[in-house]
Amino acid sequence: MKRIAVDMDEVVADVLPKFLTLFETINGHRPVEKDYRGRKLYQLPGGENLREALYHKGFFADLPLIPGAQEGIQTLLDQGNEIFFVTAAQEFRNSLEDKYDWLLQYFPSISWRNFVFCGDKSIISADYLIDDHAFNLRTFSGKGLLFTAPHNLNETEFTRVNDWPEVLAFFEQENQANGANR
Known about the structure:
By secondary structure, the chain is an alpha/beta fold. It is built from 6 helices and 6 strands.
């Protein structure tokens, strides 16, 4: 059994559509992906105030799912893996309740005991961490998987997974390699 830590934002919860809508509301236009390739929307001219929304209660409450996330998590569970959701929620204190409720709604088969709200993911003891931020993977002691998001497209340091089917393919390959090594 593998212990797999899974980040929330931009791995299972899709923050980008909400930020794009907010950017458009503030600036009167919606940026295209080439404008924010390799950076966050709030790093664009006109996006300076977007991060402020993260501090408001309710921002994280209604985020859509990343396609395939529920099925992917369930498949990993069915294969006997232990899943922990790990999210850096303390930076935005109002996000704690929103994120907790969101996880209960979309992943009811994962116990609340497997929700880890932390500021520094280097404390996580797991075999794998799936995250969209390379800085979290750099301090992680297990194997890091970089989940593709527009802001990390220029990162080359870690094994990249573009979507949930690729996550499952990665673990299938790991299982086959470990089975051959026995």
